[in-house]
Amino acid sequence: MSSENSSIPGAENPETFTGLKKGKIKTIAAGIPAVVSSIEKVIGEAGLGRGMKALWSLNKKGGFDCPSCAWPDPDDERSGIAEYCENGARAVAEEATAKKLTTVFFKENPVQDLARLSDYEIGGKGRIAQPMFLPKGATHYQPISWDDAFEKIAASLNSLASPDEAIFYTSGRTSNEAAFLYQLMVRQFGTNNLPDCSNMCHESSGVALGESLGIGKGSVKLADFYESEVIIILGQNPGTNHPRMLTALQKAKANGARIISVNPLPETGLMGFNNPQTVKGILDIDASLTGLFLPIKINGDMALLKAVQLLLFREEDKNPGSVLDLDFIAENTIGIDDFKRHISEQNLDELVNISGIPLSQITEMAEILKGKTKIIACWAMGLTQHKNAVDTIKEVVNLLLLKGSIGKPGAGTCPVRGHSNVQGDRTMGIFERPSDALLDKIAENFNISPPREHGLDVVNSIKAMHAGKARVFLAMGGNFLSATPDTVFTAQALRNCDLTVHVSTKLNRSHLVHGAEAIILPCLGRSDVDMVNGENQFVSCENSMGVVQSSKGVLKPISDDLLSEPVIVCRLAKALFGDSGPVNWDQYAQHYDAIREAIEQTISGFENYNERVRIPGGFYLPNCNREGSFNTTSQKAHFNIAPVTTLAMKKDELMMMTIRSHDQFNTTVYGLNDRYRGIYNERRVILMNEKDIADRGLMDGDVVDLINNHEGIERIANKFIVVKYPIPEGCAATYFPETNVLVPLTSVADKSNTPTSKQVILKVKKHLASN
Questions:
Q1: Per-residue pLDDT tens for 342-356?
Q2: CATH for the 646-766 domain, from 3.40.640.10, 3.90.330.10, 3.40.109.10, 2.40.40.20
């Protein structure tokens, strides 16, 4: 391990203020300010011509898929003005930037100096233009040829005592083609150690939906929003994280849908939206969205849902057959009698207290739902990153089952996925617990014997690296360190590796907190032309609603020394296995149609893949729930019974959730402003209730330290500025990755093993300058 790397002060999380400025909390999202912000970012990074060329092709049929979120594109006509949002434009600007990092940059900037920068500063340096290698004990990255890089990685992997000593991580931006090849290479190598970003975000959704409904994906199409009578949004901030969703919500509301928002913070996008593509949006006319806002206490969602169900059962008992869909329940579900008995035993007053929502508002929600059957429930990480996340999502399913709101137009489940192809990667087999059906197909089609023993997810991979049981770490995209919990522990886990390898477009913190040796393999981005044998190749992605469509870049790459992700996998596989072997890796690198033919033979639902993916707009994958069936062991949907659980907290403790700023997507920080929340030029803040601030003898603007003590281990995040904010008492919010250091690796959701980043118990103490 490099001594310089180990001794960099604060390399995991620099503690530097940038100068907080505060403004008014916005009540309306998007509008002209979003347009101005988007254009400024794109032109500033890529220049007028290059930037506008990218935006013109973004999310268009025949263009390239947005590298930001996974919200679906319209099935019919797409906007001729801008089929993207502010954050999508920022993501493209970051990728299309004209700034590039060559040998000169790395020669002038030691790793130690770069590690002292913030994630925002690191990401703003530009695109990596050539493969780079950090030898053991070295202070600077140095250039390496592609062949030498592949040979070095292959030698390290082949020297391991067991394939299980290697970790192969995947981010959600990896294409279907690259993901399929990656998992194939890893399983030919002999391990199922395929952790991915799903482990940290929507794993709880997949587990809950798979167990209760038979498929780990949502059931709705975008068109269902326009037929819906009620849309419930739980633990999600679409204005910042999925801005194009606001257009769908606005159209749904215009068609008569009631929107209920359940969230600890009154997020701007939930309250109002000005669509900059409409006259009303430009003129700020009728921008409201949410009809009922419920400021839930953090992790109070299950109590709220049970309270609503209790009220619905009472109404059904008064007027049998008028509230619940008894025919649907009888024909399609099991467990209703036990579930009704469980709900009837709940104490309504206790549920109200735990949720933090007044009974009058809970009653209003029940009244809205009472006579409706076309109900969509949407959620994101506000539900998935709690210890009881799986049961809470099953409680959402329980509510939909009572109303018969699955498998019909205008109704269903909608887990809103984050990164643009995170769902597609899982479909392609990126999973540490693969099904026997997938492994059987791999064995049949490729004449290899894939391992059957389950591999390591993110949390267990970190533990294995920290314990010295995993020695090589390879990441296909992403910023692993900044995305994961327990940052100091995770940093040491990476440092304990012999070799860390990252396939990346831009510099990030995971390149700077590394193993004894480190390699960066620079890849093409979504917007880049991918020329192979004289033909611009395309890849494909799957969005949140199961649509698979093509993505073809339009921009000249900023360097001639970049390779696509599929080609990187093929060349690494050849170095790893040699020219002989059962898999013909050369054919997949020569034309991506060959990859899609292999996918068609291996993954269900991809019949005539090459033909259908070339249809403008792509095609839907099969979805049993959408078709009104349930692929569970009983072939019916399952009501789930689970108790309401609460964490014991001391009087001086707060429950903190990590959140994104508006100038951020996942770990990529585009800027230092969170203009919707009125926070500018600073990320080291903690949002607190006014009473909680006073109770601790603090004032708005004070500098504090945040302390988590879980299982006897103290975790500290120093120097955060207190910001008074409308959040329920006993709750607090901070930006990630700055407070990931406080998220215990050993605090995870039951069944899904997802870190509990929305349920961190902490104490707040005034910072002393001498600390």
A1: 999 999 999 999 999
A2: 2.40.40.20
